[in-house]
Amino acid sequence: MNNNNMDANQQHSGSKGLFLLGVGLGAAIGLLLAPRSGEEIRRTIRESTNKGRETLGQRGHELSERARGVIEKGKEYILWGRETVNSAVSAGKQAYHDKQHAGNHSNSDAMR
């Protein structure tokens, strides 16, 4: 996984979150300063709050899915690393055994 891509994605996600926060704050300030009745302002704030909750819920779900993907990728890398190390150890053991076996034949031939 490329760290540059991950950093860019995180920066993009952070910028998006800040943008949404700015929109929400701007809307709230606009509502408070607008000449409306108290009931209208409360209803509008309630609707904006509900939309904000939905957006946060969706973002939380997206982040959760992304985290699962990263975890699965990490598991794959660990499994690959383990298999690679095991293969290298087996090859090393076999080479050692072959060398020992070849050495024993050389020694027994020399003694004859």
Concise account of the structure shown:
It contains two helices and no strands.
Question: What is the overall silhouette?
Answer: rod-shaped
Distance between the termini: 60 Å
How many discrete structural domains? 1
Structural class: mainly alpha
Rounded to an integer in angstroms, the radius of gyration calculated over CA atoms is: 32 Å
If helices are DSSP runs of H or I spanning 4 or more residues, what is the number of helices?
2
Mean pLDDT across residues: 81
Q: What summary fits the major beta sheet?
A: none
Compute the number of strand runs: 0
* Approximate strand percentage: under 5%
Poorly predicted parts? none
H and E string? HH
Helix content: over 70%
Pick out its properties:
single chain; 112 residues; mainly alpha; 2 helices; 94% helix
Describe this structure in words.
- The protein is an all-alpha fold.
- It has one domain.
- The chain contains two helices and no strands.
- Helix 1 runs antiparallel to helix 2.
- The protein is rod-shaped.
- The model has no long low-confidence stretch (mean pLDDT 81).
